[in-house]
Amino acid sequence: MQIPDTLKKKAAEIGFRYPEDKRQSGLIPLLFEVQRELGWITPEAEAWVAETLGVTEVKVREVITFYSMMRAEPSGKYLIQVCQNIACCLTGGEELQHHIEKKLGIHPGETTKDGMFTLKCVECLGGCSWGPMMLVNEDQYFQLSKEKVDKVIDGLRAGEPLVADNPTPLLGNVAGETVA
Ligand code: FES
Asked: Rounded to two decimals, what is the model's pTM?
């Protein structure tokens, strides 16, 4: 697989943010760019990231497998990750997961036939006080209700721009900014 020129350009831009001897600090931002561009971090892209930043492939793999927002396998356009840890369960996380399964017609680990959504159940997403919560790609949604989830999913299906509760700054968004 050829690495797209757009991605090479982004890698160069990210590299400029760090001193020459600290280029490996660009690992997470570059992995997010790969994911955005290719939909997931392919084995070829993984090797390219390691070579580009001068880190070992093992190091890249460690990062990809540690963070739940990193995609190490193909998934739908939108990866919905629902927290199933205790704090979110106490505020209705499990019920919410069943609601999403029913709405999308898939179980955790599956992708809808149209390739739009993949559902995953994950451990703590770091927003325990505002549960139940989920990530849609890299953006966080807190204090979810069935109605709020429906609004997010229906909006994505309709191609509407959405405002996440907390878009990740790693992707250049700031809280409150409209996200595609
Ligand atoms: S328990 Fe759900 S975010 Fe921590």
From this structure: 0.78
